[in-house]
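Appendix B, Record 12. Input sequence as logged:
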Amino acid sequence: SFPSADSMDMDKLRGLIPWQFTFGVQGFVGGSFLTGDNGRYEYDDYSGLAWSAGAFALFPLDEYNMAIKTGIMFEHDKVLNTYNYVYKETYGEYRVSFSQYRISIPLLLSLKGARSNIFFDVGVQPSFATADKFRLKSSDKTVNIKEDMMDNDSRSAIDWSIVFGLGIRANRYVGFDARFVWGINNQYEDY
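Logged structural output:
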């Protein structure tokens, strides 16, 4: 006897959710933070908005629990800080910003339970800087400095990050990820 078209497979009967090869597009919006070596000073901590867009592929390593996730992402971060200064008894304000663009390649191990759509990601992410603009501006308009950090060789060409993530697959076509990407090298060497 052959199974009918409306019969369920054994995985569904047992509540098992297998990994399947998947590819698609993804995008992220979040916060970005940049801290200098002198983090105790107010001018050495920057924060702002980050976004990324790209494509990904998921390759199962076994049927239910492990997969490799990789892709390519175009990322943009704009971080800034505003701090006060006093020069010759004149009060003013400096606004400092870094606008960074890069191409990133996340290499992640995804782990989940056999009966769960919730997964954990851990891995590394090399990022290749394509543009990095620095700007320093004073409130009284006497200072307005713009520099290309790539052109003056102050910016490392490759950044390395450790990635931790948590996500849920709503179905084979839609999922939601939250990621924490922690940079482990100095982006600016001699600036």
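Residues 10-14 form the longest helix (5 residues).
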